[in-house]
Amino acid sequence: MNRKPATAAAPSRAITKEDVARAAGVSHITVSRVINTPEKVAPATRERVEAFISSMGYIPNMLAGGLASRRTRIVAAIVPTISHSIFAETVRGLSEQLSLQGYQLLLGQTNYSEEAETGLVEAFIGRRVDGLVLTGVQHSVRTRQRLKAAGIPVVETWDLTAQPIDMLVGFDNHAAGHAMGQYLHRKGYRRMAFVGGEDPRGLARYAGMRAALLAQSAAEPVHLVMPMGSFLQAGREAICRLLALQPGIDAAFFSNDVLAAGAALECARRGIAVPQRIALAGFANLDIAPEVLPALTTVQISAHQIGLTAAEMLLTRFDGDAVTQTVCDLGYAILERDSA
Amino acid sequence: MNRKPATAAAPSRAITKEDVARAAGVSHITVSRVINTPEKVAPATRERVEAFISSMGYIPNMLAGGLASRRTRIVAAIVPTISHSIFAETVRGLSEQLSLQGYQLLLGQTNYSEEAETGLVEAFIGRRVDGLVLTGVQHSVRTRQRLKAAGIPVVETWDLTAQPIDMLVGFDNHAAGHAMGQYLHRKGYRRMAFVGGEDPRGLARYAGMRAALLAQSAAEPVHLVMPMGSFLQAGREAICRLLALQPGIDAAFFSNDVLAAGAALECARRGIAVPQRIALAGFANLDIAPEVLPALTTVQISAHQIGLTAAEMLLTRFDGDAVTQTVCDLGYAILERDSA
DNA sequence: TTGAAAGCGCTAACAC
DNA sequence: GTGTTAGCGCTTTCAA
């Protein structure tokens, strides 16, 4: 199946603005203008230069351009992992919106490690990205220092805080958890559990739910921490563990829909009536939420919109305009379906 | 919730190698060495310089470095969409492996448009990426020309071809479809359908399945094309359409597990016995495949490994070594479970 | 409307 | 072990 052993290619020398300029009989700056500000070039000259650009297959070196202009037209995004569809959606939104304006997206994954985030932030600053999108509002001191020193536009996402580094688009995780806690309590459930990971946002949702229950003098919810990984399987295991450890439990709020869907699947398999025996609630309103049986009651948020909005904020800044609304609260909504 | 209107920050002037050099009383080249080849610097000098780098918070400008050295340490990946977990897995593998060596990932999405791919390739060449990872083996002439002219290392993924642009890691989609066709036929199913999108790889799987059935003198499979979007829902709709249009149908092979899972969920909902009334087979062995009821028979491939391998190939090239195995066939395997 | 000069911050090649 | 000299390919500012 193999072909010739491939060695490093020999890029003789890439073609430059000078080459095009020489061929077209103008100076390189004119070529530059044809590309960046065509309206400032005489139509005749422009057409001739364009013809040469095209026939010679000239592609401007944006590295050199970026160095000279101090604008790279690159935005970096840092997410815990691209494997979780919520973050994938945010990244998709970002990338789509950014590419409309000729910006490119550099992607970094932290795997939920703050240390990794710090490293990525430094790497991206080193690449002189025009803007940075961070997940969450919790960052190392070093990250904050670097960001401040670099002075580049930053958008934090997926959460809310009173002291954003710069801009922010997200929703109140604590309030969302609180709302679900109230909802479940109102529905008559009294012995609840929260199932999730240990990321700050999941923890905030748990805290919100807990606060809601305590405010109603209801029992404190069981907090079951599951490892991040295959959420579906984790959800199945979680429901088994919950039922075994706390037979009296009557409702479970999961940190995301996939976890909840796994639980629903397991209940179906074991003939456990949902929501009669145990109610299930998810988070995010992912594709899977309405599809399992029973359809999942969940908290609706918009992962994709987070990416879109973050991109818009950044783009506004890049245009030199001031972003008046530096904090964008996208909100959330309890979506009642059949599982709780 | 708003704070001060945010305006473009004033990055007075980023600190450079010169600044550090002056402070440490050495020349800028020594600072450069401390960063890039510390072993070539006297320990005493090194430590002093390192102290200044750290205390001054110096972050090298990789744009300038890249321009001078002609190496950006950036790899670009182009996928149809990051929303489909198979591609997200590939991107995750790529990013993980690359970041181990200090490389960063630029991400582009085509939304299955060849034209978009062409544009992205040009943009990435303009950014002088060190390597490029493409999805599939079908590309515009222009893309091929540009890539050839640029002479940068390229890895095509997710398919196989006799004439790769450069390097290749994937598996034979036609053969995988063929194998599933044979499997289903062997299992006794005779009136089959294929459900998928119109991407080249899905089409190849359909063609393979069709060839297998025709070789057995079995009936030609029905080919149902579903729009890309919410796969779960598309899977549900597909099974409804199939059963309505072709009541005699006894097996359906879906272009991916999510589609198949949607169908399984709908069958469960409507009390349609799987695999007795209709057998269901998926593709990719995603997390969801073993979790639905009945567990999905599918074709196992490794999306994550594709990313890992592509990164390794590229990294080998970057090290100046020749990649002897330019084509890596990761293979596939029929995974028999309960649905077919 | 077009061009010349200067420099963005770094690395490569060669000297000392 | 360390420094000097030249660029890398582009944009910016100013001049014509």
From TrEMBL, chains A, B:
Boundaries of every HTH lacI-type domain copy: 15-69
InterPro entries recorded: HTH_LacI, Lambda_DNA-bd_dom_sf, Peripla_BP/Lac1_sug-bd_dom, Peripla_BP_I
UniProt keyword terms in alphabetical order: DNA-binding, Transcription, Transcription regulation
UniProt keyword Thylakoid present: no
SUPFAM superfamilies, per the entry: lambda repressor-like DNA-binding domains, Periplasmic binding protein-like I
Signal peptide coordinates: none
Entry protein name: LacI family gluconate utilization system Gnt-I transcriptional repressor
Organism from which the protein derives: Herbaspirillum frisingense
